[in-house]
Each structure stands twice: as C-alpha cells, then as structure tokens.
Design goal:
Largest sheet: 7 strands, mixed
Structural class: mainly beta
Order of helices and strands: EEEEEEEEEEE
Number of strands: 11
Length: about 130
Amino acid sequence: QVQLVESGGGLVPAGGSLRLSCLASGRTFSRNAMGWFRQAPGKDRECVAAINWSGGSTYYADSVKGRFTFSRDNAKNTVYLKMNRLKPEDTAVYYCAGRRGDWATITPFAREYDYWGQGTQVTVSS
C-alpha cells in the first residue's frame, strides 16, 4: 500500500520558517515527479511547488517564488518543502503528491498526480 505522510506543519508567526517533510512508503518515488499543494478554507487546491525525479527541474507558484524551496532525498524516499518568510496568506493544509509514471515531467495540475498524503496544517499568525 502506497502512503505519503506529511509532517512539519504547525503555527508560526509571520516572517517565520517551517520545513515540511513527506515520507513515502510502499514503493519508491526516486523516479517520479512530486508536488506540494495547499488548500485554504473556501479556496481551490493549488500547486505550491513541483519537482522532477532528480531534483534538477522545479516549478514554483508565483506567490512563493524566492521564499519556498522544494528538495528531495531519493535515498530516503522523502521530499521536503522549506518555507521562509511565511505570510498569513500561506495558511492552509499542505499536501504532498506523487505521480505514478516513471520519469514523468513536473506539472502543477492536481489531476495529474496519483498519490496523495493526508495533509499537514500550516498556520501563520499576523
């Protein structure tokens, strides 16, 4: 059974930092594109960042460029999202997602991801 388990969320003041982790089990994701999405109350789920299998290609939403960094450790089957200079508008549930196909390109579209974690809450206080 494939599982993606996020951790690292919490409450942080504006300007602070958090690092989210997503540990995959049940299969290797070392050849697969991964994504981080977030969903705030009353809003659609949006792609925050995506990364290809090697980490050599990344995508960032305009709202997080320069503040968030997506990285991966394929040996640990884990991806990370380092979030700096957090803003109250970053408050959301953050989800990790993985694509099934090996060597698939990165994409910001949720429908193209096959595996999802249950999410971790990030709350940024003003």
